[in-house]
Specification:
This protein has 273 residues and is an all-alpha fold. The chain has a single domain, classed as MetI-like (MetI-like fold, Orthogonal Bundle). It is 70% helix and 1% strand. A two-stranded antiparallel ribbon has the order 1-2. It is elongated and about 75 Å long. The two termini are 17 Å apart.
């Protein structure tokens, strides 16, 4: 079939390869990076060369090495924050829809209150009070993002809760835990898979924004947002050091969206028109 290999679109196949490459080099940054993360090995903003394939940054550190170490920090924080948001948001959303009544009302209004505050402003306020760190960033981003997952999960579960197979499970005497995890959750996976990719990219962008503003990943650790902030002044002089990590963020977002789009089409048997 033209443009496909083993049922996988070329775009999704290429995106999958790039994602595997991202994850591999991120996890093996200590091995694959030519230099240490904070080693000053040359002059500031040197051009690309055989010694420094991507050049150096504002302090003379190898950009390629920094990019690899930053990839590990960015991907791991975003992944754990997304997992936290989905575990918390989906369980609470399904529970609220299945139980209903005052519990659903209280939880939904609390989520509405949290969502009324811009997420970035809320994160900035929290991080000015609590010292920023990797664990803190995971918790803050995960909790704030869980409100979006809660709304989606509750809406899906509310529709599924009215269906015949759920009513049949209740009539059989199945408990709420059974209904949530054995009846509602398996039938809600398709939209949640799509949302997971979007939430992961949102976590990457959120982390990068916080680091750019100085409240994200703190030195000596680095992430892609920190690299953009450190090298932003070079753009005035035509130096592309800040554009390299920015391009990595964009490439990661595109690849995740392509893979998730294909996964969603596979799980729901949707046909593109």
């Amino acid at each position: 079939m033209t443009g496909r290999r083993k049922g996988i679109p070329i775009s999704a196949l290429v995106a999958s390869i790039v994602l595997v490459l991202f994850i591999t080099v991120a996890l093996l940054a200590d091995v694959t990076a030519p230099y240490g993360m904070a080693d000053i090995v040359g002059g500031a903003w040197q051009e690309s060369s055989s010694q420094f394939p991507l050049g150096t940054d504002n302090l003379g550190r190898d950009l390629l090495s920094r990019l690899l170490f930053a990839a590990r920090t960015t991907i791991l924080i975003a992944a754990f924050a997304t997992l936290l948001s989905f575990v918390l948001g989906s369980i609470l959303g399904f529970t609220a829809a299945v139980v209903g009544g005052w519990l659903d009302l209280v939880m939904s209004r609390a989520v509405d209150l949290m969502m009324s505050i811009p997420t970035l402003i809320c994160a900035l306020v929290i991080l000015t009070i609590v010292p920023p760190g990797i664990v803190t960033l995971i918790i803050v981003i995960g909790l704030l993002d869980a409100t979006r997952v809660y709304r989606l999960s509750r809406a899906i579960a509310a529709d599924l809760n009215a269906m015949d197979f759920v009513e049949a499970a209740k009539l059989r005497g199945e408990g709420r835990q059974w209904v949530v995890f054995r009846e509602v959750l398996p039938n809600a996976l398709s939209p949640l898979v799509s949302e997971f990719g979007m939430r992961f990219i949102y976590a990457v962008l959120m982390l990068s924004a916080l680091s750019f503003l100085g409240l994200g990943v703190q030195p000596p650790q680095t992430d892609w947002g920190s690299m953009v902030q450190e090298n932003k002044d070079g753009i005035v002089f035509g130096i592309s050091a800040a554009l390299i990590p920015a391009s990595a963020i964009a490439l990661l977002a595109i690849c995740v969206n392509l893979v998730v789009d294909w996964a969603l089409s596979r799980t729901t048997s949707l046909k593109r028109r």
